[in-house]
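ARCHIVE CARD
CATEGORY: sequence design from structure
SOURCE FIELD: tokenized fold
FIELD CONTENT:
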């Protein structure tokens, strides 16, 4: 069986999905009932809400059962199954599992989840709750495959200009006044939460915004403004996500026993 299960369908998982799919593997995504993706234009998790989303020409579609997921994957699409505990693993065999939830804390994944369990970023340790970890911090180590130890710790700081990250100023549900891909002027109203306004920190493009109507807590990342001001980038998987996807592909292909199972029938 050449199916790979990916837990989480956010923007970094998008790079993993594209790399694996383009290499010929069938991918199934398990997701939460209410995902909190910010870069929704490149997150397959959006299929949970919309029913379907296309990222760089690849279509993801919400499915209601494992059987439907396998059938859809065989058709060359990306099934997104609401399955927060990855219960599909209880009855179905996957040679490889990728934990792409980016929890940044100790994950509930275990070595017994699949013959090859690959974790992304902090919270996963090779030999403890996964077999290998992919580095997610930018720099010379981004996308590297660790067969021992953990990825770099979460710095708690956004990459680049910290002002680009929009955070919830209060508890409540988000009301949007701008759309992903919109040009923004400095000080322009983007959204409102709990009566508190979120304004553009500088001129740029709205690269990401959490889904309107979703309840959030104060301090949660809810948006991202890109000073490069190119709306095309809002709907392109990032260089970081593709690098991480390359690390996942390396991890899979470097294990002959896993590679042979996944390549069977391709």
């Amino acid at each position: 069986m050449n199916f790979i299960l990916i837990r989480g369908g956010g923007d970094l998982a998008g790079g993993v999905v594209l790399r694996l799919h383009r290499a010929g593997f069938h991918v199934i995504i398990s997701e939460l009932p209410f995902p909190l993706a910010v870069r929704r234009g490149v997150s397959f998790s959006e299929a949970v809400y919309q029913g379907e989303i296309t990222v760089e020409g690849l279509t993801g579609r919400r499915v209601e059962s494992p059987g439907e997921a396998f059938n859809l994957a065989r058709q060359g699409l990306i099934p997104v199954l609401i399955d927060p505990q990855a219960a599909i693993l209880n009855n179905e065999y996957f040679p490889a599992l990728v934990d792409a939830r980016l929890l940044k804390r100790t994950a509930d994944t275990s070595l017994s989840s699949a013959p090859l369990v690959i974790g992304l970023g902090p919270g996963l340790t090779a030999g403890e709750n996964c077999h290998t970890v992919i580095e997610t911090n930018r720099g010379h180590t981004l996308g590297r495959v660790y067969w021992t130890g953990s990825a770099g710790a979460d710095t708690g700081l956004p990459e680049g200009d910290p002002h680009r990250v929009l955070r919830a100023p209060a508890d409540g549900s988000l009301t949007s006044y701008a759309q992903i891909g919109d040009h923004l002027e400095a000080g322009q109203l983007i959204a409102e939460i709990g009566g508190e306004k979120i304004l553009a920190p500088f001129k740029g493009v709205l690269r990401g915004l959490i889904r309107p109507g979703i309840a959030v807590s104060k301090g949660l990342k809810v948006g991202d403004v890109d000073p490069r001001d190119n709306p095309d980038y809002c709907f392109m998987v990032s260089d970081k996500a593709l690098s991480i996807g390359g690390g996942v592909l390396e991890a899979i292909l470097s294990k002959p026993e896993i590679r042979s199972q996944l390549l069977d029938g391709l």
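CARD ANNOTATION: The chain has two domains: 3-154+239-263, 162-226. The chain has a mean pLDDT of 93.
SHELF: design records, drawer C
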